Amino acid sequence: MEITRQVRKAIIDHAEGELPNEACGYLAERDGVVVGYYPLTNLDKAADHYSMDPQEQFTAIREMRAMGLKLAGVYHSHPATPARPSAEDIRLAHDPEISYLIISLADAEPAVKSFGIRGGVVSPQEITVVEEGESMGVKADAVKNCRGIGCPMNLVHAKVGLAALRSGQVLEVILDDGPPVINVPASAGREGHRVLGQTRLADGAWSVLLEKC
């Protein structure tokens, strides 16, 4: 599994913020790299197991699809036990096509490990941490911070930012969660620009990389 450094840090922060209970959520990928995460509510509010909110699950999947992302896996934390699947984790791993990532907070330094689980058989997966855009050799040439700016003005800011670039250059746009992070990439795509990556930041906003056509 390849995962951006930003997403890895964000899910650890989520796990620590939910102590003493387990945290849980979804991981989203683009082109084989985990570039986004969706923290979900642990309805059980327990330190040794979790249940996801079905409505939040539905919303997360819908948002992924709207942004051209794919479900890569499920993550959850073990507040006081090692980063390996419990018997319950194995029993509840219904999708053999995704990864199951566990964050252990048992030691001073959090441990993050990933597993494939198929038919009750657990297979460890190597995790490679990359910088945003690293796997594509991408670095932003300019940044537009649109936190707190709603639609349609964030669309205007993104267009102005792209207009100032040459073809092939990359604009990073920082957007609030919700409609902005769906509408701005969609609008850019309709105009022929390329969406290179999207990463959820620690404060809940999104970093979106747009390559000018």
Summarize the SSE layout with pairings:
Blueprint lengths: L1 E3 H13 L6 E7 L2 E8 L13 H13 L3 E9 L8 H5 L7 E6 L6 E8 L2 E5 L2 E3 L11 E4 L7 H11 L6 E6 L3 H12 L3 E7 L5 E6 L2
Parallel strand pairs: 1-3, 1-8, 4-5, 9-10
Antiparallel strand pairs: 2-3, 2-4, 5-6, 6-7, 10-12, 11-12
How many structural domains does the protein architecture include?
2
**How many β-strand stretches?**
12
CATH architecture of the largest domain: 3-Layer(aba) Sandwich
Largest sheet report: 8 strands, mixed
- Coarse structural class: alpha/beta
Radius of gyration: 18 Å
| Ends distance | 30 Å
Shape: elongated
Which strand order does the major sheet show? 7-6-5-4-2-3-1-8
The share of residues in extended strands comes to 25-35%
Q: Unreliable segments (pLDDT under 50, ≥5 consecutive)?
A: none
> Considering DSSP H and I runs of 4 or more, what fraction of the residues is helical?
25-40%
**Helix and strand element order:** EHEEHEHEEEEEHEHEE
Mean pLDDT over the full residue set: 91
Number of helices, counting only DSSP H or I runs of 4 residues or more: 5
CATH level 1 name of the largest domain: Alpha Beta
CATH-defined fold name of the largest domain: Cytidine Deaminase, domain 2
- Considering the protein shown, what is the CATH homologous superfamily of the largest domain? Cytidine Deaminase, domain 2
